[in-house]
Design goal:
With 478 residues, the protein is an alpha+beta fold. It folds into three domains: 13-213, no CATH class; 222-345, Cathepsin B, Chain A; 356-475, Sandwich (Jelly Rolls), CATH 2.60.120.380. It contains eleven helices and 22 strands. The protein has helices at residues 34-44, 74-77, 101-110, 114-120, 182-193, 205-213, 230-240, 254-258, 313-318, 333-339, 397-400; strands at residues 4-6, 15-17, 69-72, 134-141, 144-151, 154-160, 166-170, 216-221, 244-249, 265-276, 282-289, 328-332, 342-347, 358-366, 374-379, 385-394, 407-413, 422-425, 432-440, 442-450, 458-466, 470-475. The chain has a six-stranded antiparallel beta sheet with strand order 8-13-9-10-11-12, with helices on both faces. The longest helix has 12 residues, at 182-193. The radius of gyration is 23 Å and the shape is globular. The two termini are 13 Å apart. 38% of the residues are buried.
Length: 478
Amino acid sequence: MSHAHKCTGFDPKKIYMLGEKSSGLESRGILQNYEELKKSHLQSGTLFEDPLFVPNETELGEEVKLDNVEWLRPKEIRKNPIFIGEKEDRFDVNQGELGDCWFMAALADVTQNYKILERVVPSDQSFDKNYAGIFHFRFWQYGRWIDVVVDDRLPTRQRREENGEITRELVYVKSKDKNVFWTALLEKAYAKLYGSYKNLDGGFVSEALGDLTGGLTEIHKADQEHWNETLFEKMLESYQKKSFMGCAIMNGTRLALSLGLIPSHAYSITEVIEIRSRRSNVIKLLRIRNPWGRVEWTGNWNDRSELWSTIPDNIRTSLSVKIREDGEFWMEFKDFIKYFDILEICHRNQDFGMTHWNCFMLDGSWSVNRNNTKYLLSLKGDDNISSVKIGLMQKNRRLHHQDQLPIGFKIETFFQAERQPLRIQGPKEYLQVTGHVKLLNGNYLILPFVKGMDKRECEYLLRVYSTANFELKELDSQ
């Protein structure tokens, strides 16, 4: 039986070790305490070598040729490596040969919020002071923050520079400054969390945003009715509330490719604005970034577009429009909905801004014989009607190599419903489904469901947020 945990009852400062009991994740054999391991290696004068993520034993990405790959520490790659620069930003995130554009796009988003980034990338780590070859990073996993320890051995390959010099370069993510290594080490920790680099091939931006923030995510697709001009208002409101956004082109056309857009690829959305032209026309613009750090949109409002001359100089200056190949570009909203077909939004949780929301979380599972668990939601708001957000997500898919299952949930009144139940289902196959509803005070049933369940058990996390006071508990299955 699953149990409800009130989010506000969780200690936001509690950090679990990977595989620790009550962390919600499976045991990895041994627990790794960062502080204790670092102290031990400093005392012995040795460098940490991670027995749980061993070079040449962990699987690399599918596109990486294993020949010529050598695992080196940053001090063996650069003369003066730096863990993190004075000011990290989204341009530090440049995808390498791994197919984790979805994670890179999410990370570029998160760099714009120092408080959240500091939670993921703990400070006081360096290659100088108290260096022992050990680093650690934190990820949100199903209601808890998990500390992941790694050594600093990274996959590299040989490269010949223009001057003929032979150097080693990182196979995967690179910072714009080749001396900076926080992004490469963070990517390694994320790969360890999910078992291997190979397990990071392919994914959704919102999945990674959830892991980096703990926020509640939702997805919008081009085949839905609201994929039109009304979607911009939601994007603008979400941006103003400091939500994070990503997008993707799953069914790219030849025309999109000719305009610099990459099919089957994820992007960050880093700004959403409305501006006025010199003639007072309203222009809806999105700033979008390719995690490659190169290859940009060449259509209207690109870096060199003559359309920029139609807006006041002070506005253009405030938008930092620069002609440079950095993967970031501006795009008008009407072009966005023409070429992109997925929008993902991650709403910040109570740790990072949703302080006025009450929250409960429940762990549950589906199996062939158990697919009818019901949860009783009792709304007790001061007002007669309350805003409720419900999120359902599939757990541990990457670690268990499970398919993305078509999941969803129904909401019914506790007693015989006078109207049809509200049914919210993900688009075909998706890891998380989010619903926003307005409900009168009273009792409701939430019924998570999954289609196409095979004989393996599948775990899920159910989260309910509301501005009103409420209770949530599991009912005995019939």
